[in-house]
Every structure is written in C-alpha cells, then in structure tokens.
C-alpha cells in the first residue's frame, strides 16, 4: 500500500509542477526563469516516477496485468 501511495503522491506533484510552470509562464511573461525551473522539476519527477515504477515491477512490489482480467 505504501508503494501505491507514494506513486500517487509523485504523480500529483508532477501535475502540480506542470500547472505551476503554466502559472509562471503567464505571470512572468518571459522575464524570469521560474517557468524553466518548474518544467525541469516536472521532467525530473516524471523520469523518477517511471524508474520507480520499473523498479517496483522488477522487485515484485507491483504486478502488471492485462486489462479485463
């Protein structure tokens, strides 16, 4: 259960970073680099989440299954 909770938290953090990048893009009008930092965090978190899911599947913490089964 801990693994799934952590995946959901990381996913919502990725979404939050995406929307904060959008907010900074509209607010700063290209005058600062906050948009780049927010989107960089999004990329780092997304890659980390993907790697975390691959490790979880490899270690047996999660079990992939076919849809409808």
Topology:
Blueprint: H1 2-28, H2 34-59
Helix pairs in contact: 1-2
Give a description of the structure:
The structure is a single chain. The protein starts with a helix and ends in a 10-residue tail after the last helix. It has one domain. It is built from two helices and no strands. 77% of the residues lie in helices and 0% in strands. 1% of the residues are buried. α1 packs antiparallel against α2. With 69 residues, it is mainly alpha-helical.
Cα Rg: 16 Å
Q: Which consecutive residue ranges, at least 5 long each, have pLDDT under 50?
A: none
Strand content: under 5%
The number of helical elements comes to: 2
Tell me, what's the shape?
Answer: elongated
**Strand tally:** 0
Task: Please describe the biggest sheet, giving its number of strands, its sense, and whether it closes into a barrel.
Answer: none
Mean residue pLDDT: 88
The computed structural class is: mainly alpha
> What order do the SSEs take from the amino end to the carboxyl end, as H and E?
HH
Rounded to the nearest angstrom, the distance between the terminal CA atoms is 21 Å
- How many discrete structural domains? 1
Helix content: over 70%
